[in-house]
Amino acid sequence: MTGTYYGIMTSSGIFAPIIFGKLIQASGANPAVGFSASIYGISVALVVTAVFMFLFGKPKQRVSTKIDKRTVNL
Q1: Contact, 24 vs 16, CB < 8 A?
Q2: What is the CB-side half-sphere exposure of residue 9 using CA atoms within 13 A?
Q3: Which residues contact 74 (CB under 8 A, 6 or more apart)?
Q4: pLDDT at 35
Q5: Residue 65 phi/psi, 5° resolution?
Q6: pLDDT tens digits, residue range 2-55?
Q7: Cα 3 to Cα 6: distance, rounded to the nearest angstrom
Q8: CA torsion, points 35, 52, 14, 42, in degrees to nearest 10?
Q9: Is the dihedral of CA 47, 51, 57, 60 positive or negative?
Q10: 63 neighbors 74 (Cβ within 8 angstroms)
Q11: How far apart are the first and last CA of the chain?
Q12: Which residue did the predictor score with more confidence, 17 or 61?
């Protein structure tokens, strides 16, 4: 299971250069447009991810114990 998790987690290192390379090549004579599209795409993905984390993320719960006066993360 850990190998599958790390394989999926690190797959962006394979797919991101391919996707960004195609965006830059598709921009034609002006590669700056392709780089701009790549940066805008990353920005949109980060904002969408932040909204999903805000809506669906579960914050850590903190519980204080009465016996030894410590706070424990759950």
Answers
A1: no
A2: 6
A3: 60, 61, 62, 63
A4: 92
A5: -90, 140
A6: 999 999 889 988 998 998 999 899 988 899 999 999 999 999 999 999 999 999
A7: 5
A8: 10
A9: positive
A10: yes
A11: 23
A12: 17
- State yes or no: pLDDT of 1 exceeds 70: yes
User: Please, which residues have CB within 8 angstroms of residue 18's CB and are 6 or more apart in sequence?
Assistant: none
Joined tokens for residue 26: 């598709």
Residue type (1 letter), 67: I
At residue 68, the pLDDT reads 64
- Which contiguous run of DSSP H or E holds residue 51? helix 31-56
